[in-house]
Design brief:
heterodimer; A: 113 residues; mainly beta; 11 strands; B: 112 residues; 7-stranded mixed beta sheet; 4-stranded antiparallel beta sheet; 0% helix; globular
Chain lengths: 113, 112
């Protein structure tokens, strides 16, 4: 069975500080991993994805994530937070491909001046 | 840029009523999905649809729910006899040859 755990339902950072959102997954088969962002009153937008190629994945808006099989992690980072990054972020896993996504509970990122 | 569109954006209904949520997937996509997000909880998979039939469904997707692609462009989710616990944001998604899912902005359902 597949599952995703996001550590920290709320993360608050200062503008310009490092953003680190944690995601650990469980999968019985090689997974595809995703980070989605949800701005208020909007849908889910794909930030980046890991599909068994390079372990360091770069996405939109300066975000990146590193797949670490030994740690079963796929943490999302951004070197310098911007006010516009305030949103809810969801990590998701798909077993061996696309189609059905299993989402984590989400992490709400707040960015303060 | 092509996008998935959903209507209505918000629907309020009385318990026991039937609701139909509509989605227009991206035109050349062949796989369609419904997910839901109860307020404050995680996004949950409901059902996937391909080639005019359900390809996979979750435990949530019981006989109260049905999906249909009535006219080659719309993809609908019908909820019969709504319950209070059906109140949620319902997201439609579609995918094409790359497999990547594109989500709509969601339909918020409130059951009173």
């Amino acid at each position: 069975a597949q599952s995703v755990t996001q550590l920290g339902s709320h993360v608050s950072v200062s503008e310009g500080a490092l953003v680190l959102l944690r995601c650990n997954y469980s999968s019985s088969v090689p997974p595809y991993l995703f980070w989605y962002v949800q701005y208020p009153n909007q849908g889910l937008q794909l930030l980046l994805k890991y599909t068994s190629a390079a372990t360091l994945v770069k996405g939109i808006n300066g975000f990146e994530a590193e797949f670490k099989k030994s740690e079963t992690s796929f943490h999302l980072t951004k070197p310098s937070a911007h006010m516009s990054d305030a949103a809810e972020y969801f990590c998701a896993v798909s077993p061996g491909g696309y189609n059905k996504l299993i989402f984590g509970a989400g992490t709400r990122l707040a960015v303060h001046p | 840029e092509p996008e998935v569109t959903q209507t209505p954006s918000h629907q309020v209904t009385q318990m026991g009523q039937e609701v139909i949520l509509r989605c227009v997937p991206i035109s050349n996509h062949l796989y369609f999905y419904w997910y839901r997000q109860i307020l404050g909880q995680k996004v949950e998979f409901l059902v996937s649809f391909y080639n005019n039939e359900i390809s996979e469904k979750s435990e949530i997707f019981d006989d109260q729910f049905s999906v249909e692609r009535p006219d080659g462009s719309n993809f609908t989710l019908k909820i019969r006899s709504t319950k209070l616990e059906d109140s949620a944001m319902y997201f439609c998604a579609s995918s094409g040859s790359t497999g990547e899912l594109f989500f709509g902005e969601g339909s918020r359902l409130t059951v009173l």
